[in-house]
Please model this.
Amino acid sequence: MPEYIKHPLIKADAVEQRLYQLDLAGKALDTSTLVVLPTGLGKTIISLLVMASRLEKYGGKVIVLSPTKPLVEQHASFFKNVFKLPEEEILTFTGSVGPAKRADMWKRGKVIISTPQVIENDILTKRISLEDVTHITFDEAHRAVGNYAYTYIAEKYFETAKNPLCLAITASPGSKDEKIVEVCESLHIESVAVKTESDKDVLPYIHKKEIEWKRINLPDGMKDIKDLLNKVLEDRFKKLTEHGYPIYNQKYVSKKDLLGLQAKLQGELRGLPDPSVYGAISILAEIMKVNHAVEIVETQGLESLRMYMERLENEAYSKSGSKASKRLAEDLYIRQVAHRVKDCDLEHPKLDYVKRIVVEELENKPHSRVIVFANYRDTAEMITKALSEEEGIRPVRFVGQASKYKDKGLTQKQQVEIIEQFKAGDYNVLVATSVAEEGLDIPSTDLVLFYEPIPSEIRSIQRKGRTGRKHEGRVVVLVTKGTRDEAYYWSSLSREKKMQSNMKLLQEAMPARKNNSITEDFAADIPDEDQKTLLEYDGENKNIKIVVDQREIRSSVARNLDRNGTEIIVKTLEVGDYILSDRIAVERKESQDFVSSLIDKKLFEQIANLSRAYEKPVLIVEGESLFNCRGISPNAIHGTLASITLDFGVSLFYTRDAEDTAALLSQIAKREQVDEKREVNMHGKKSALMLPQQQEYVISSISDIGPKAARNLLQHFSSVENIMKADYEELLKVDNIGPKTAAKIREIVGSEYKK
Model:
């Protein structure tokens, strides 16, 4: 008979007592701890034990953070079933709960389970305070790197909480030392506790997990298509060399290598770059597209390639299509590939293996649950369709939320429903992309099938952990011989071994660091005077206020403003993204967003509105890839930037990243509010316009008419009244006024007003 946890805040006979969980929870109560435990061994129960102890000792609130809404829903259901607390004190926070309602719920909540983005937003907008939070659990803690919301929340928590303690839990923190250290540093971790499947106290709860690798030959017909694509690559590599950027390991070039070269080329676009840089960037874009097509042939199949080629063709002939996609669409070899793919009924042998393996599993164990993992949505669609044709198989496709051409994503509500239907047996095969790798509570999965290996040790471990949780499980990985499948296979194995080794070393080393920051080991060489200089900046932005548009909270600019001491006031702004004083408002555009809004013609409307409303409008272009977005001509971008400055009178600044943007905003706001003694005003107005400016303003308010076109019309007709009276043919006589603009003017001026 199993023994159960006994605690005043945990329901009797609800949680089985396991020694390894008690051991890990004990360590996590001593100090902020990273717990590494294989999937399916109860990381959430360790969190429960620590939370219950903290609530009993200190009271206050405890928080559990999990990356997705489905995971939040799962955790909330578990905690409501085991905590001996009123259900109204165990709350779920996601984006579907309104901000005002969350603020009210926060006051009465004891246990809050939330996505990190929601808590981050509520901290920034000051709807909540972490002062009385006595514990935070960071689920899937390996995400706590870079700008992910976990890092900011941990930072604010340890700044403001009276009794802070955190627990970070993951099955796979990664194989790279620097990533593990970054996770620990971001979450203020002072000790590491690791349990593996070979530990004596864990062994009784481990179920056998059989792992098979099935090696498959690539058919000759698919090799022929791959050869055609390789001819395109050879040609583009040659052209790249002619532009002065040779790639020497062409046969073994990886996506990482290509992205590295792309970053290097983008860095050379500053100032007045050599024209060959633009050509090299465009050729590299072609190489990356074709290289991806080769990977699809090798590892996915012709149906997936057919879908990819269709999207490529759609991109090439769309209005916003890049030069790279247009050139590829016209390439003789690419056209041959497209023709063969359309006419060829050959499919990757992996698909037959999938059908055979799944059919065999369900015939032998009719009540089994199976997960098939595929890297790409097209492949998931193909597998789902193929399996649905087999008797006794009830497959469902499980993908992320984003939608693109002919590929609709799933809402989080749909994802939760599918998981529940899979558990209930309405579906017996889940065909999933990476969205199903983390944390899904599907204890009865008997078989996990990898359509292809993946080089990431984190993702590989997460996938394997979907089986062998309550009983014996099986993992099958399909590998195409002589392709990048094999490279990914060896890479994943190597990284998994390295991760296990690193974690053991870190576990031994971390206790010595208790009460010390990891970076203190590296801070000893910093001269004292440098440290004092850094401290002098502390608090220099005190009393500086910046109004931030609600939509900008999603960026990391707001959290960087908060970090540097600037008070942020979140509002819904009709004009601009940031207001720094009664005369300065700022529109921020990331490079990709700048080009996108230029293509869809929203950019000039936004700039015009900014220019009309504020005396000193500012545009910040953030990022270093402005001239490498979607194949737009550099001359078009330069022309746009010139117009923004000269025609609209908008000050233009460039920043590297969100941190750089926040620093610039703070400096401008400080100059306005401290040096110039100006107030922050959401409804700033421009100084009174002179008559010609007012006339230009009236005409440029018509859709599709910019400042230059307005001046041309006024110079031609002499007055606003004459423009309004002009007919379609007269309007066409004006420079730069085409049929579309003339028709728009006549439609607005001559149409009957209907309320």
